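User: We ran a pulldown and think these components assemble together. Before we commit to crystallization trials, I'd like a predicted model of the whole complex to look at. Sequences follow.
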Amino acid sequence: MTLEEILAVRPAEGQPRAYSFPAFERTVLPSGLQVLAVHVPGRPLVSANLIFRRGAVDEPAELAGATVLAARAMTEGTKRYPGLELIEAAERLGSTLHVEANWDAVVASVEVAASRLRAALELLDELVERPVFPAEEVSRLRDERLNDLLQMRAEPRRRVEQAFSQTIYTGDSPYARLAGGDEKTVEPLTRDELMNVHRAFLAPAGAALVVGGDLTGLDVPRLAEDVVGSLATARGSGPGAATEVPLAGSAVDRPIVRLFHRPGSVQSEVRIGHVGLPRRVPDFHAVQVMAAILGGLFNSRLQMNLREEKGYTYGVGAGFDMRRGAGPFGVRTAVQTSVTVPAIAEALKELRRMRDSLVTDTELAAARDYLVGVFPLRFETPGAVVGAIGGLFVHDLPDDELALYRYRVEAVTAQDVLKAAVEHIHTDRLAIVLVGDADVVAGDLEAADFGELEVVREELPAGVSGEADEGAEDNG
Amino acid sequence: MTAPTVRFTDERLANGLRLIIAEDHLAPVVAVNIWYGVGSKHEVPGKTGFAHLFEHVMFQGSRHVAKTEHMALVQAAGGTLNGTTWLDRTNFFETLPSHQLELALWLEADRMATLLDALNQENLDNQREVVKNEKRSSYDNRPYGQSFIKLQELLFPPEHPYHHPTIGSMEDLEAASLEDVIAFFRTYYAPNNAVLAIAGDADPAQARGWVQRYFGEIAPNLQIPPLGDLSLPLTLGGEKREVVEDRVPLPRHYFGFRAPLFGDPRLDALEVATQILAGGKGSRLYRRLVRNERIAQDVAFFALGFVAGASMAAGQATVRPGVDPGVVERAFEEELDRLGREPVTDDELARARALIETYELEALQRVEERADRLAMFAMLLDDPEMINRQLPRYLAVTAAQIQAVAAEVLGAQNRVVLTYVPAATGPAVRGQDEEVVA
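Assistant: Here's a predicted model for the assembly, 914 residues in total across the polymer chains.
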């Protein structure tokens, strides 16, 4: 055969190997702490996540940022390991201790060779149970956050995210804030507030330890009982936090446009969307397929239009950030300044088209096959498996959620996708939020009439001029 | 804990394509990674950014694959994909459920054999706009966005191709023509200029058969022009400084150094040194500048291995408000000098080794990383077995070797200092890392 004859025939796929999401075993310790162990054969590095089901969403508005700061300060030393001794002890095991708070939870994690799991868990327990929150380090971390906020204002990609959340949520919704807090709430935070936050989430009944990797020869429940079994009881508010659905009110009831002026910007950072969905929705899988077709796949409708046809952008995506409460739904892109208006018009067209007609069989198959096929790739390593199981705990989802994922995705129909789009994309109340050069784009935005336009010319952070200049333009 | 050995076969097809297969059936997943021996160092003045623009063109279709269909087919097969361009090379990769391996091999072969059949002005123009927007997103519209570009400019002389960035210049991107694309493809995208690595859940005999079938008849290019002499002195022979005004709220120093070539054991020592300097909260720079003296908001230090002339090491420190940037610079440089003056402690070295061991094991768990490294070591060092020797080499680095390499390259005789300061007025300066398709 000639090369041409050979290449002219597309190969058929082979026989798929059987795959199922690794099964995990649950033990509930007397303290109420859940222990979820998942054996992933052949993986000598073990991941352990200790998860507390209280996050930034659970803190009062005036303390916004306290949970994130508390998490950051927990690795700053304990009674037994003052200062950096905790970090150094972990490093001697070849591991790094991480504590992170997000909207939904606080997660302390470590990755370590299976043979050193006990020693690593002891350090994890130490920092979770007995952090000292040294006042000096707390004030340093607080200052670092304040400096980070300065940097954020100067970074269009981060600035637009903050502006988008602030625009779409009502002021009494936690999601209108930054998870890490802003200048007003972070500045007054002290050691006392962080200790209060810590006491509040340190409730074993609202916590889970997830351990994954090659667990041959390890009795994880016993190890957990030995090491974290005494996790302080009756100190926190107990279970139930996760079932409270955080407030996520929409501040927008009609299309609006909000433009944050950044002089000389060669691109406009654009977000288009509204209050979206919580993780626990009955049509989760249909929403995933719909979002993949709209803006998730490499060849999503938005990408094909804005990138591959028009060349307006390096990339465009869309999706639902699903939290315990309704996180945002948004189209996200950065487009060359001169095409800001046509790019928005095309994105709006794709949002409407998603609601107006059924996706094609080809689109449906592409999205379903991708989500189903890529599932085993996503869970190649214990770290990813442990993270996903932790998600089940945080969102209080059934144990078979991950095992059934691929079957549920396969069952999604074009009608389901249309229904999800009609129910969850609200083209009558889209907020269009931009960070870009108002002197160049405001007039066109006004004329395009996507919605009522507000131009925000704010004070830029210290040392930075807000003065407009001619703009170093390179639009070709 | 001992690192599992990556076992592989290493062979060449008659047309020169180097094929490496590393079989591992732990997960039902397979990775394909093809490295071409062409990067931004092959670009000539007036044509910068071309290797990367070309990488984008590789997704615009070939004789049997329509524009963007490459992505569609891989994703519909449940796979992930991308391509990246860097100074010394360009690569393309797919990770898929193992029963889809043949698809990836066919896709790569079709574009290696027949890309020019699908090439047209419209697709080139479209990707030119996409890449210009990539440049705007990644460099021009970001605070500190030009820093890496400027480090390259200062570290490498104008006549050396590492002087210019992989993303190129707007002017050169604008000027790229169809003829350029055709010539570039014919010159460099040949089987004898490529390494194809397959790692994961594959039957080697079957995979070899498919590679032979799809790639075996693609003609080599026996006239790939060799690069000229790109050798450079290991050190700059002095210090270069530049101050950049940008729309940034906090000053930041960037430090750049020439470094030993990729594969030189001294670079291993330098990698261990970067861990001791800035690898996490226990590191020297973090401990002193961020934690104890509180003069920096953040610190970083890393090394990038190149094969032509010199590699580079680079660091950065963001100055806290109200702190004299000079104080931060001096503290940073003192720590680098100290590394060259006295040996690191046994405990520091032990912690660095333990962490490096975990990072390496973590990375090598993934088939995508294994395929990438096999192709990398074969392409850049002609030594894929290095995948198994890299970790032992790191673990064997001694305090004396760290001290020696630090004294050799991290001092003022070999230093670039780039300082960003908040601009008094005016717009952002205009605009690095690997360039990827998405």
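The domain at 9-215 of chain B is CATH 3.30.830.10 (Cytochrome Bc1 Complex; Chain A, domain 1). That may be worth checking against your pulldown data before setting up trials.

User: Thanks, that helps.
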